[in-house]
C-alpha cells in the first residue's frame, strides 16, 4: 500500500517553512552584519602556481599544489582602544598556510603555520577560520607573502579585519556548525531509538545517513581532525573527506530507496540505486587505499558521485511526488535548496562567489534539514508498522478467541456425552440445559442466561443462571409466552432491547431445535445497549444445537435400552432382565443382610380366557393384569413377565408376613379389576406363590423353585389365593 499525503504533511511542511524562514533571517542578518574588511591587493608571485580573480587566490586541487601571493595593504595607525588587526582566511582543507614578510625595521616576520588536518592544540574548539594576528605596532603600507599548500580545490580570500570583528564572525560560524552537528546527532539518536522500538530497517538507513553526514560535515569544517579518535583520519588528508563524501552519497541513496519504498515496487530504479550505492562504497574504499596514481582523480570522482546521487535523488523524489508518497514535495523542495546551496559552495570554492557564511555553510544547514525531513517522513513507516502490529494483535486475539470457543465447544460436547449417558430420563433435559448454560456463559458473558422449553420430550423446563433470577425470569417468560413461542417457531435468533429493564439492557433469543409442538428458547440478557455480536449469537445457537442434539440422542439411547429390558406386550421387565434383576437383588440383599421376597403370579385358567376372547383378547387381559399388579406394587418393587401368563414380583425389604400381605394385595387388585374386552366384562384372578430369601441365599435359584412350588400349591389349593412357601418343602 502506498502512503498517501495526509494533513500531517501540511503541518509538517508549514513547520519546516517556518524553521527555514528563521534560518534565512539569521543568515541574512549574519551576512549583513559582516564587517567590511580593509582591502588587500593580491598579486601571485611569478613562477608559483595559482590564479587569482580580484581579491581571491585559487588553489586548483587534485594534485598537491603550492601557491604564493603578495598581499599589499595599508594598516591604519594603531589604536590602543581597539583590537589589533588580523589577516583572516576561511578554513579550507589546506596542508599548510602561513604568512611571511618583514616588519618596518626590515626584520623578517613569520606568522603562525596552520595545517587543516593537524589543528594546533591551542586552537579553540570548532575553529572557524585561519587567523593571523599582525604585530600591534605595524602601520602604513605592508607587504606580506601568503603561502598555501594543499591538494583540495580552494579559493583563498584573505581579509584584513579587526580581531574583535573576526571573532564575531567566527562565533556565527561556530553557532551554525554546532547547530548542524547537534541536529544530526539528535537525528541519529532519534532514528536509532525508533529502530529499537519498531525494528523498521528504514531507520537504520536514516541513522547511517545522519552519522556519516555528521562525520562528513565535521571533516569539511576541519573539526573532525580535532577529535582524538578521528585525528588518525588526518593521515589520509583530503582522501578521508572524499571517502566520507562517497559513503554519505551511498547512504543518502539507501535512505531514498527506503523512503520512496522503491524496493517494494520492484522498480528498476531500485536496482540502479543499489548498484550505484555499491560503486560509491567502492569509491570510498579506493579513497582510503590512497593509491598515488589515482589520488589526483579522487576529488573529481567523489564530486561526480555526489552529483550523480543528487540527480538520482531528484528523479526519485519527482516520482515520489507523482506517487503521492508522504512528504515528497517538501523533501523535493529541500533537495533543490540543498543542491542550490551546494552549487553556491562550489562557486565559492572556485572563486566565483564571495566566501560568506551562506556560501560556506549554507549547504550544511540545508543537508541537515533535508536529512531530518526525510528521516522524520519515515514516520509513515511507523504508521504502517503500527497498523501491521495492530492487525497481528487482532488476528492473534481473534485466533485465541476462536481457539477458546473451540475448546469450550469440545468441553461442552464431552460433558454432555459423559453426563447424559446414564442420566434417568426425567433429568436428561435439565442436565443438558445446565451444561449448556455453564459452558456458554463464560464465552458469551450474560447477566442472565436461561433455557426455557415447553413440551420438550414431553415436559416443561426452565433452567436459569444465576439461579436467584429464576423467579423473575419465570414470571417474565410466562408474561410473554405467546410472543416467545412465535419467535421460537421462526427458528431465527434475534436480539432486542429489554423494554422493561430499569437500566439499558439487551436480550438475545436463540431458538432451541425442539420438535413441534414443543418449543424452547435460549434467553441471554446483557447490560447495556451494545448487545451481542453475530459471532456470539452464532456460538449460542451452536451450543444450543449441541445440547439439544445430545439430549435427543441420550433419550433415544435410553428408550432403546428400556425396550431391550421391557416386555413389549405388558411394559413390565422381560424374562432376560428379570433374571438379571433376580441375581442382582439376591446378591445385594445377601451382602446387606436384607429381606427379599419373590412372588410368582400366574393367571388362573388363562387357556380358557384365550379360548373365549381369542389370542388378542388374551393379550389384552395380560396387559390389564400387568397394569393392576403395577398399580398395587410399591416403589422399589419390580415386576416382570416370566413367560406366558406368569408374572414375577421382586419385593426388596419384605419377608414372610409382609410378603404375603403384598401377595394378597396383588391378588385382590387383579380380582377387583374388571377387564373389558369387546363389550364383555371378564373377571380374572391370579394364584400367587411367595418365597422369601433365606439367610444364606445369595442366588435366586432355590427361592425360584420354592416360589414355583408355592404357586403350584396355590393352584392346587383352588386358585385365586396366595401360598407362602415354607423354608423347606416336604
Ligand atoms: N393370548 C396369549 N396367550 C398366551 C400367551 N402366552 C401363553 N399363552 C397361553 O396361556 C395358556 C396357558 O395355559 P396353561 O398353562 O394350560 O394354564 P391355564 O389355562 O392358565 O390354567 P392354570 O394355570 O392351571 O390355571 C396357553 O393356552 C397359552 O397359549 C400370550 O402371550 N398371549
From TrEMBL:
<feature type="transmembrane region" description="Helical">
    <location>
        <begin position="178"/>
        <end position="196"/>
    </location>
</feature>
<feature type="transmembrane region" description="Helical">
    <location>
        <begin position="363"/>
        <end position="383"/>
    </location>
</feature>
<feature type="transmembrane region" description="Helical">
    <location>
        <begin position="203"/>
        <end position="220"/>
    </location>
</feature>
<feature type="domain" description="GGDEF">
    <location>
        <begin position="594"/>
        <end position="727"/>
    </location>
</feature>
<dbReference type="InterPro" id="IPR000160">
    <property type="entry name" value="GGDEF_dom"/>
</dbReference>
<feature type="transmembrane region" description="Helical">
    <location>
        <begin position="272"/>
        <end position="291"/>
    </location>
</feature>
<dbReference type="InterPro" id="IPR029787">
    <property type="entry name" value="Nucleotide_cyclase"/>
</dbReference>
<dbReference type="Pfam" id="PF00990">
    <property type="entry name" value="GGDEF"/>
</dbReference>
<protein>
    <recommendedName>
        <fullName>diguanylate cyclase</fullName>
        <ecNumber>2.7.7.65</ecNumber>
    </recommendedName>
</protein>
<dbReference type="InterPro" id="IPR011623">
    <property type="entry name" value="7TMR_DISM_rcpt_extracell_dom1"/>
</dbReference>
<keyword id="KW-0472">Membrane</keyword>
<feature type="transmembrane region" description="Helical">
    <location>
        <begin position="325"/>
        <end position="343"/>
    </location>
</feature>
<dbReference type="InterPro" id="IPR043128">
    <property type="entry name" value="Rev_trsase/Diguanyl_cyclase"/>
</dbReference>
<keyword id="KW-1133">Transmembrane helix</keyword>
<dbReference type="Pfam" id="PF07695">
    <property type="entry name" value="7TMR-DISM_7TM"/>
</dbReference>
<feature type="transmembrane region" description="Helical">
    <location>
        <begin position="297"/>
        <end position="318"/>
    </location>
</feature>
<feature type="transmembrane region" description="Helical">
    <location>
        <begin position="240"/>
        <end position="260"/>
    </location>
</feature>
<keyword id="KW-0812">Transmembrane</keyword>
<dbReference type="InterPro" id="IPR050469">
    <property type="entry name" value="Diguanylate_Cyclase"/>
</dbReference>
